[in-house]
Specification:
The protein has 343 residues and is of the alpha/beta class. The protein has helices at residues 13-23, 40-48, 59-62, 79-88, 103-116, 130-140, 162-168, 171-174, 176-187, 204-208, 279-282, 284-300, 308-327; strands at residues 4-9, 28-34, 53-55, 69-72, 92-95, 120-122, 147-155, 191-199, 214-221, 226-232, 240-247, 251-254, 264-266, 269-271, 331-332. The protein is globular, with a radius of gyration of 20 Å. It starts with a strand and ends in an 11-residue tail after the last strand.
Length: 343
């Protein structure tokens, strides 16, 4: 396949980012974009980019005979039905995380993809970050030996709106899910148990909405390795994203990205600028890279670097973390099968 023709479902911020990244690639063509609310602004935006079809009906994307692959960037509750429809139509699929908030539904979507013989990549963009990719390479090369401890710090500059928090699945499902995937990515092992503790320290309204804004999660892996993840909805100094892998032969770590590398030393002290403040700045290149690799895998029929099972495993960890807080004890992932999913 010389060029992958793409349709995008969901024209919000992330949908437009993917569209702009695809439009820069000679190997891809954005044929159509859909959104429930087709405004004049959206029409002008699409027209300026040469996107011929703008529609409010996602079916126009899924059933479009010229489209090879679909990017699902709509709300989480639409992901599973859209994946199943796209798979049935023989389209390859890129879907933003999470696939759903119900592991049973996610499994149904993965099965539909498998039966249709199409590809499904999940939007865990942090795997494609230059720092974290290098860290994983060092682990694969054995530079740190067998991983023993993973430490992940993930803190946002400011919490999202309460309206978003109420429908997002909460801190574990919409924020820490990236870190759960990162821990699996770094160890190459599966999580067996989860112990989470949470607090409301940033905004009481977040607690009133039924969520936490500050959390520590400990993961135990089948390999015996341990991971500790700390999350906060607010870091006053910027977007704080750090990972350390400690192993039998040594350690490797990835620090924050900064606007520049300048360090000022004077009578006041030694300092530098704050880390990048916005996730789109911090992960701009990662978004481009994940899109490029998806298109390349579709064109050349290559295995995807992050697939539906990766999405499922991260969701299971998030569900176990939420349950762990409720029960105030560690939760084994194999317990979830015998409990009500979607806690």
């Amino acid at each position: 396949m010389d060029k992958v023709k793409v349709g995008i479902i969901g024209a919000g911020r992330i949908g437009k980012i993917h569209a702009d990244n695809l439009l820069r690639m000679a190997e891809a063509e954005v044929v159509a974009i859909s959104d429930l609310f087709v405004s004049e602004e959206l029409k002008r935006w699409a027209d300026a980019r040469g996107i011929a079809v703008v529609t409010s009906n996602s079916g126009d994307i899924v059933l479009h005979e010229d489209i090879d692959a679909v990017f699902i960037c709509s709300s989480t509750d639409t992901h599973v039905p859209l994946i199943m429809q796209a798979a049935a139509a023989g389209k390859h699929i890129f879907c933003e995380k999470p696939v759903s908030m119900d592991a049973a539904q996610t499994k149904e979507a993965i099965e539909a993809v498998s039966q249709a013989g199409v590809k499904l990549q999940i939007g865990f963009n942090r795997r494609f970050d230059h720092n974290f990719k290098r860290l994983r390479e060092l682990v694969e090369q054995g530079r740190v030996g067998e991983p023993h401890l993973i430490k992940i710090t993930s803190r946002d500059p400011a919490p999202p709106s309460l309206e978003y928090i109420k429908v997002s699945g909460g801190l574990f499902m919409d924020m820490a899910i990236h870190d759960f995937d990162m821990a699996r990515y770094m160890t190459g092992s599966e999580v067996e148990s989860v112990f989470a503790q949470g607090a409301v320290l940033v905004d009481p309204a977040i607690g009133e909405a039924g969520d936490v804004d500050t959390a520590i999660t400990t993961l135990t892996f089948a390999s015996g390795a341990l991971a500790v993840i700390d999350n906060s909805r607010r870091a006053s100094y910027g977007y704080d994203q750090r990972v350390e892998v400690f192993g039998s032969r040594g350690a490797a770590s990835a620090d924050n990205d900064y606007p520049n590398t300048v360090v000022v030393s004077d009578g006041e002290g030694v300092g530098r600028d704050k880390p990048l403040h916005f996730f789109l700045e911090r992960y701009n290149e990662a978004y481009i890279e994940e899109t490029r690799i998806f298109i390349d895998c579709v064109r050349r029929n290559l295995p995807l670097p992050v697939d539906g099972n990766d999405g499922l495993q991260a969701e299971l960890i998030a569900l176990a973390a939420k349950l762990s807080i409720q029960l105030n004890r560690p939760v084994k992932l194999n317990e979830l099968a015998s409990m009500r999913e979607g806690v």
